[in-house]
Amino acid sequence: MSGKAKAAFIDRDGVINEERNYVHRIEDFVLLPGVVEGLALLRDAGYKLVVVTNQAGIARGYYDQTAMERLHDHLRARLAEGGVVLDGIYFCPHHPQGSIAAFAIECDCRKPAPGMLLQAERDLDLDLAGSVLIGDKLSDIQAGRRAGVHRTVLVESGHAIEASARAEADLVASDLLAAARALAHS
């Protein structure tokens, strides 16, 4: 045993909160049902809780990093009400077609690249081979694979899921709570 912690890497939009067009305002943030219970199950199963989220809206100039940080503070507060504390939130502000020059770049952190997971591994001393990734898009599953996580889970969050994502994921679950229940009992 390496002594390193295992993590549940969790995508944000469409997994933790409702998928809406570039959610960045607190009044547009809607926590999905069962999220607090699902995160608590994962924590109780020994996983560190790490959010990994692409935030192309920053590169596109729709909002800035301060607005995103306010939203993440709100997310932390909502989860804390249910007794859940996140171990980390990692985000990618980049997009090659962005309108903000500093963020309009190819990078190694935008999923499907594994950069956010690899940074969390270093920061939190994580065992990627014992970790899981829970997302709602093929790019999430690919980031998990490229980082070397043990299992990838695709959640059906109300939008169409690509057949290729279903085929590449180790497990498909209806939502975060169903995913957490499956992982906690495996």
Please give a structural write-up:
- The protein starts with 5 loop residues before the first strand and ends with a helix.
- It has a 6-stranded parallel β-sheet with strand order 3-2-1-4-5-6, sandwiched between helices.
- The protein contains 7 helices and 6 strands; from the N terminus they run βαβααβαβαβαβα.
- It is of the alpha/beta class and 186 residues long.
- Helix 1 runs parallel beside helix 7.
- The protein is globular.
- The longest helix is centred in the middle third of the chain and has 17 residues, at 65-81.
What is the quaternary state of this protein?
single chain
Question: What is the average of the pLDDT values?
Answer: 95
Number of domains: 1
Low-confidence stretches: none
Termini separation (Å)?
18 Å
Order of strands across the main sheet: 3-2-1-4-5-6
Shape: globular
Could you name the CATH class?
A: Alpha Beta
Q: What is the number of helical segments per DSSP (H or I, 4+ residues)?
A: 7
User: Largest beta sheet, briefly?
Assistant: 6 strands, parallel
- CATH architecture level-2 label: 3-Layer(aba) Sandwich
Helices and strands, in order, run as: EHEHHEHEHEHEH
Topology-level CATH name: Rossmann fold
